[in-house]
Amino acid sequence: MTRTPPAATAAAAHAGVTSIEHCRWLTSATFDDPDLDDDTAAAIAEKGIIVTPTIGTNYQLNEQRRPGFVAHQTRVLRWQAKHGIRIMNGTDAGVSPFNLYPHHRYLEAFQRAGFSNPRILDILTRESAAGLGLADRIGTLGHGYSADLIVVDGDPLTDLTALRRPLLVVARGRRHTPGLNPLTADLG
User: Is there a contact between 103 and 138 (Cβ–Cβ < 8 Å)?
Assistant: First the structure.
């Protein structure tokens, strides 16, 4: 499992990075004794460093292979939130074999950790845009921003599963209909 070891996390935080990827706080092959360093967490929060916990979208498989994975993941997310650490969205989705697992499982990890739906949506949008250095162009609906949005069947503020039911995707102002493959569809 790829990870940023706690010592590397501490070194990065004190070196002045703006983000830390794969920030899982793992120290060994087991999850019994995670090195949750409060001093490093305080430094990360104070400096406004944003972390990508790289939550496995295939958490069920991880749990089967490494019992305790889900509990560790939940504990770390709660701990990061308690310290005020900024979190952005990021997975290994799109890279085999991780592209086999739906991205909504990432959201479920935040729910297990007690994050509210509005907070999860903020992580997916504004915080992720900020972490990429693109907060002046994406992550928010407004004048001068890229017109990226999805229209879903339902209200994700109260039910995140609505994100699994896209009706329309608009990317950079261009409309896309989910499920319509422009390479094979009869656009006649």
Answer: no
Whole-angstrom distance, CA of residue 101 vs CA of residue 116: 23
Instruction: Give Cα separations from 30 to 14, 24, 38, 74, 95 (angstroms).
Output: 27, 13, 20, 15, 25
Return per-residue pLDDT of the chain as tens, 188 residues: 345 567 888 888 889 899 988 776 655 555 655 667 888 889 999 999 999 887 766 667 777 777 777 888 888 889 999 999 999 987 666 665 555 556 677 788 899 899 999 999 999 999 999 998 999 999 998 888 887 888 999 999 999 989 888 898 888 888 888 775 554 444 44
Cα angle at 151 between 145 and 155, to 5 degrees? 110
Output the six-digit token pair for 140.
């928010």
CA-CA-CA-CA dihedral for 86, 89, 92, 93, to nearest 10? 170
Q: Which domains does the chain have, with CATH numbers?
A: 6-139 (3.20.20.140), 147-188 (no CATH)
In sequence order, the 6+-apart residues with CB closer than 8 A to the CB of 38 are 83
